[in-house]
Amino acid sequence: MPPPGPLPVVAAVLVGCWTVAAVLLPQLVGWIAEQILLASGLHQPVWIWPVVSLVTVVAVGVPALLLALLPRSGAVRATGRAWLAGAVALGVLGLLRMIPAVHHEAYLAALALVAALTAVIAARLLRADTTAGSVGRDGTAGVTPLAVAAGLVLLLPWLWLGALGGLLETVLAALAATAVGVVAGVLLDVGFWARFGAGRPTRPALLVLGGGSVAGVTLLLLAAGTGHSGAQLAMLLTLPPVGFLLGALQAPTDTGGRPTGRAPVRWLVGLGVFGPLAFTDPEEVTLLLSTTRDVPFWVMVTAGVGLAVALVLSVGYGVLLPRRVPGRRFATAAVAVLLVAGTLVYAVPGQPGLHGERLLVVLRQQADLRDVPATPGAAGRDARVREVYRRLVDTADRTQADLRRELDRLRLAHTPYYLVNAIEVDGGPAVRAWLSSRPEVDRVLVSQRLRPLPAPAGTSRGDAAGPTGPEWNIRMIGADRVWSELDVDGSGITVGSSDSGVDAGHPTLAAGFRGGDDSWYDPWEGSRSPRDRSGHGTHTMGSAVGRDGIGVAPGANWTGCVNLDRNLGNPAHYLDCLQFMLAPFPPGGDPFTDGRPERAPHVLTNSWGCPTIEGCDPQVLRPATAAFDAAGVFVVAAAGNTGPYCASIDDPPAPYADVLTVGAVDRSRRVTEFSSRGPVPGVAKPDLVAPGAGVRSAMPGGGYSVLDGTSMATPQVAGVVALMWSANPALVGDVDGTRRILRETATPVEASPPPGGEATSTCGGTANVAGAGLVDAYAAVRAAGV
Hints:
This protein is an alpha/beta fold. The chain has 24 helices and 13 strands. The radius of gyration is 30 Å and the shape is elongated.
């Protein structure tokens, strides 16, 4: 076959460069757009990835089609056909990203099916030569095991740094990876490699470099369509260099002078795809986790190592294989050694085990708490909490009994809950369908689980100077005047925090920890004493009860629970902490039988929300907040940081009428641009605003940091409630009366449009932006009655 002329080659190079850019840019822009929408709390339209796929197919397909039809060179035409087919495969597979990431198992099943159908159709349309090639006595029988060995080497970084999901998720990932490998075998068939000199030992460089480059661009197209949004980013780095490896594996010749065929392609690409598909949760490849060495960091590291490994293997195979091919025994032995090595890597430095999502089964019947007596005062409140706890547990025990027995019979691990009548269950789509069909079940949600990291994410420590007196935000709301003029500091009141944890050793918080064996709970890691790696919980608790001028109620006690791990949670762990707040229990205790409702905190501060990405729906925590309201426990919640968009208060529990929802203002008493806004159907939100921009508070390790957010504003309002109830114990448990005083004593704030926000700033009125106004601690405590 004569070499192609310079013009077709130049055209192919230019089209190849264009293809790489036309693939990488839309994939990156599409993912970033999703992350911006997620961080902004906005709806993510399903048309993002279909549009990205269509744009890429057109941008790549047109020049690839011209290459496939116009040049006389067989190699250039084969290049065009491969890239055109790859673009079409990208378009077809990319449409599957319309399946929400929370339903990852369904996506993997669809990917396996659609990729298999794509391979069958492509083989017929392209008339692909999928024969394996003859195997001669010169040693090419070892080529396929060598491909397997290379694939296992590419898999090693994922075995080391990644973590598997659930069993079904892993099996489906393997099936999907196999199907994608089959597609690659069709696109890069025997005929394709023959055009680049496969079977001609005098031209290995053209095969490895030329054919490998073309194959790499084809695999780039395939990678861009494979995996939920986020997982494909790793494959865009690790899969294209496999093209050079495939070229090297096709370089050896047999006695018949044929390429070695499809098997090396299928094995190598399948294993290369399996790593990112199985060992990466796409929901965790998110900017929400990018502030520390979390999943995005480790995926990037793993992909970088995979890229380096693929390039080293390409050079090694490209130099050695055209000269001498190891026999089958040697190659098979190499595969066996790598299997053992991979197992050891996974079991020792890796993260062994299955870490899939679980299901939260919400039952139809919830406890009836409407007639719980609203007895005022501390003693009356304790009696109300005990009655609420009794009714909740009785309802859950009675209505869950049949389902629990059936789950035990099927050996499905499960955890019952009473605060919301629900059960968390191990299971995939089939179990979910069965549970949804049961008459006592209202709905089944996915309860997200974070996969473990190869190394701790690290502890956030503040770099700001310590306080020198009451902070500006404390002075703005008049808390310092409450201490000095009214002699009230929150003594006798306990504030409970569900957050990332609390550093109990911080100088401003150590003396306030309530202590005992029922003041701390960590459902994530089971720690026995308060700790916090993120710093978020320590900062918020400091603003509520911290001493030295950072906290509103420095004389109050605190209890804590970890409901956020690495800045993400799930509905089950939110319930774990909320149940602990209603009826604390000792380490290892059963929440149903060992709860101590009389030890419930008086006020709860909640600087978190449960969005759909974590598995929540709008009503999932509604019974929980209703129970606290009936029990006389005051619940304060952050509005969220997705302003200035209207109707952006949407993640539970902030939209609920029975929680006090808090927005944020800056030093100028203006509502911050990030503070989420109403309207909320059926209720006015936010209720109040508090200082939330540039707030100094405690951080783990004894440090301090200045942070922004409605998270920072919320604990200050919780602290004001602690001051009010400390000043007048008769008000303890009077949730409605306390809310009324807080609203009536609030001061007006400026809700003028933020820069560029005129279109959405009013949101139907000032009340939907600033609520009743800025909380006034001094006026509220005086109104409460000192």
